[in-house]
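Page 47, continued from p. 46.
Same chain as before, 176 aa.
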Amino acid sequence: MPAFRVREPVLLDPKGPVITLIACVVGGILMLGAGAAAVFCTVLATTGIGGTRGGWTWAAVGLALVSAFVAYVGLSTVVSARDERHATIRLAAHGVEATALVLTVSSAPPTNDHYSQVRLLMRISGPGFASFESSNEVPRYRFGSAAQGTVLPARVDPATLAFTLERPSAPDVASA
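Result:
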């Protein structure tokens, strides 16, 4: 039985080099600092250096576990930022111009930082790939004016189906 990977469309929020660098530096600091703390706490808990006995041993074990978790968060931040930057570069290099036809618009729950969102169900089509549908939650301040039937400019990487959307253009008041 041949193994193959199904390509799933993904809406990409393009990341620039400065944002990527900041995310990697913060993630690296978390990873290295918390990793060192995890090693230190593990050594304290296992060797008893500095009079770590009884209840303090469990405190050191708990701190080691928390530090290891924070180090993992730092590592995943670095990997995620790097992958998003690579996807942004790939989309810029290999992407094709496409269109996204809005099929439905509905409200969506706010983001963690309380930005309003809308959910867009879209059909994306263009040259070099089969048309596909995608449902995504997007910021209301960027896409709140989109309605059923709105056509949004898009850019799609035909190999990965990663895509970006542009804001709907403002109505031309001069022609009215």
